[in-house]
């Protein structure tokens, strides 16, 4: 029974299927005006209902009401089969299907059966290609609202899911779950070809293409073929110059989210990975790992053309362009092209005349930070690159590399 005839009238639409209130933005329709109003806030970005405990805000009062149970611990909906309890009634309804085995929603395209209507609707978008949820910051679109919400954290920098073992934080629970396998050594996804196992299913999917040789994504500009859609999209940005990831602190933009994430740490003055040999610090563990090879002399990346070895994959990739003749980075001023983006950045300053780095000791102006740091060592006497063979130290990594040949010659 219902308190008023209007509430009864709204309820009857559940049975009739009538949804008279349509969103002018996306065309989705609703049974009541209030539900439409809550929905429209997804498009406007308005979130007027704020949690007094943690400050998180919501588009609807009901969503705030359910969220508050996270803080109170209240879980009023209990499963009569196993005793598991839930914050929401619909979560219990979905859970009950675990016991009954019921999967009433069947996809006509691939035959997959699903328990819940919402996951069924999202699944259908795999086949239709429909991606109705668009990011207002970069225009990227997604099949589900939850995927959009996770993506938006790339722009906000929010990483709410923290690992209790090492403190590293993540944008989604699934990424945290995958990361935890690093600590417990769990690698549940195994390659049937070679037996190599992985923490994540998508890592296995990428690996499988090593065996098949499949590279289905071909660049129309340079002809390069790539084995995964995400790397293909990133590669295209080399040619288009698109940099959709914008730093809210300084306005600098980046072609992929990881670069923005590392850059943000420069504003926080956080470089948590310190080299135990020379004390130099880095924003991410992979940069530190590559740097440490300067001290150990390890050069695991070998050029198949000439046998030259390198400390990082990116340096090998840049070097290989000498053999292929590929120079993908072109100056818009004079048309000169370069093997490396960093070389283009240095060259651009020839046109601008910019020399932003000034030495406080002698007043010399330099175009680039790396040459500025090398120059400063003339005054400080710092020689941070030590030879592991004889202990002799050098101003620059290049000088150390050249010196290493002395010992290689001795062995031969």
TrEMBL record:
The keyword DNA-binding applies. GO terms for molecular function: DNA-binding transcription activator activity, RNA polymerase II-specific; RNA polymerase II cis-regulatory region sequence-specific DNA binding; zinc ion binding. Residues 1-20, 21-48, 49-76, 77-104, 105-132, 133-160, 161-188, 189-216, 217-244, 245-272, 273-300, 301-328, 329-356, 357-384, 385-412 form the C2H2-type domain. GO terms for biological process: negative regulation of transcription by RNA polymerase II. Keywords: DNA-binding, Metal-binding, Nucleus, Repeat, Transcription, Transcription regulation, Zinc, Zinc-finger. It comes from the Eukaryota. SMART domains: ZnF_C2H2 (SM00355). It is found in: Nucleus. InterPro entries: Znf_C2H2_sf, Znf_C2H2_type. Its main location: nucleus. The keyword Cytoplasm does not apply. PROSITE patterns: ZINC_FINGER_C2H2_1, ZINC_FINGER_C2H2_2. GO terms for cellular component: nucleus. Belongs to the krueppel C2H2-type zinc-finger protein family. PANTHER family: ZINC FINGER PROTEIN, ZINC FINGER PROTEIN 850. May be involved in transcriptional regulation. This is Zinc finger protein 658B-like. The gene is LOC102740667.
